[in-house]
């Protein structure tokens, strides 16, 4: 039997008086692709830091491939993109990839790592001259250049444009298809839906859901009602309805409710002018909102 | 799984050290504010202060010229400058940019990281004294025997080692604020007699100087050109340097642990 790629056992983490993680136990098997979802400050980055041994748990244990995460043998099997970390600006892209390759026992060729991140044209640029999205891609190149068994990606697509994100997700999908373990945290629910076989929802430092995206969606009994209006709807038009959530973006309204018929009847009665009306099952984002009772700010 | 089992579990350390040292070196070298001041400043001071009186005797009747004395002084000033100022500041800057978090998440062992930083700083220091030596020889016609050149270079490099520890400590304690560090370093260099012979300095400084690490290092480099200013023996000086090295590296280790505890506990 092989060791789990990641194992947290009754793990808690306190920063002074703040309890960032409370008694979390979870195990991620090799080859799994797991998305960790949660609002800001929920404990996602803390979880990743503990899994990687960047921080120590206040109580409980963390194992990486069955070893202490600080063990270099364990570290040599993972590639990491951390949200907050900086990179030396005065190195060229190819130089820093070369440097990071030397940390790993069986690295990929430099050019391959750079190509996977889509940075071929920037290979000879200084890191400080890269754009925000290119920085993120450089982090990907650094994470994959060691040819690791597991990838930890903390908010990997922040700062990327639409095309960059699409390409990035494709690359990560390919790595996952090759049997790599991928653990990513994200705000973007469609990323989790698209990539992950398993979603772990964290809120207030505890795991509140751990299941496949489909199973999590199915937990939300409600239906989603979407429509557009000619003018942004007034608050009074939507007031007093039995809603679980309400998202109004300009002319587009998205409602989540357990009583779709009643809500629709009331909307018609109030004479709200609805176009492109659609009623469907909840998506991951709504499931997430329903579970955490918070609005998601993309 | 057999393919996984047979492959090495960690990367070899020496190539890692070589790559890391090279990267640290070019990182320092490509910042003109660092490389230019580190490499050019000692020669520039030499041009301003030493050049005009290079062939004069250090004091009436001395067989040592001011040029020789000042070459030794600036060699020491140069190497310590690299360690204390540039090196400490670059470390503080990197911490400010959270590069330490990036390094922390890789399988790079911390001792390799620090050894590479020290090696790269030593390389810059070596370039600085070679440039200074060439400048002194060509522009000021300073003459030393081959043995003196070698001894001076070696001693200056050895004397830089305690200041590596000091640079590390400052990098972890101080922010990337060169003004404060310079405010301490430059007067210390003066007080140790690196710019003007100690006997020309105010009396109270003459009393303080013997306890300063730069002063002890200065005796060693001056000694290599026959210009030591006090009677003590060089073995005493080396003992002082060793003690300073131990003290500064302990300080650096303490500062490092404190920083790590704050950030990564």
H and E string of chain B = HHHHHHHHHHH
* Arithmetic mean pLDDT of chain B: 87
The CATH superfamily of the largest domain in chain A is identified as P-loop containing nucleotide triphosphate hydrolases
Structural class of chain B: mainly alpha
Tell me the distance between the termini of chain B.
Answer: 35 Å
Rg over CA atoms of chain B? 20 Å
SS summary, helix count of chain B: 11
Shape of chain A: globular
> Into which percent range does the helicity of residues of chain A fall?
25-40%
Give the strand tally of chain B: 0
Task: Specify the helix fraction band of chain B.
Answer: over 70%
Description:
- The complex is a heterodimer of chains A (298) and B (265).
- By secondary structure, chain A is of the alpha/beta class.
- Chain A has 2 domains: 6-217, P-loop containing nucleotide triphosphate hydrolases (Rossmann fold, 3-Layer(aba) Sandwich), CATH 3.40.50.300; 221-281, Alpha-Beta Plaits (2-Layer Sandwich), CATH 3.30.70.
- Helix content of chain A is 32%, strand content 28%.
- Chain A has a 6-stranded mixed sheet, sandwiched between helices. Chain A has a 4-stranded antiparallel sheet with strand order 11-12-10-13, with helices on both faces.
- In chain A, helix 3 (93-101) packs across helix 4 (110-116), helix 4 (110-116) crosses helix 5 (132-144) and helix 8 crosses helix 11 (284-292).
- Chain B is an all-alpha fold.
- In chain B, helix 3 (32-50) packs antiparallel against helix 4, helix 4 (66-96) runs antiparallel to helix 6 (110-139) and helix 4 packs antiparallel against helix 8 (178-191).
- Chain B is globular, with a radius of gyration of 20 Å.
- Chain B starts with a helix and ends with a helix.
- The chains are: A alpha/beta (298), B mainly alpha (265).
- At the A-B interface, helix 2 and helix 3 of A face helix 2 and helix 5 of B.
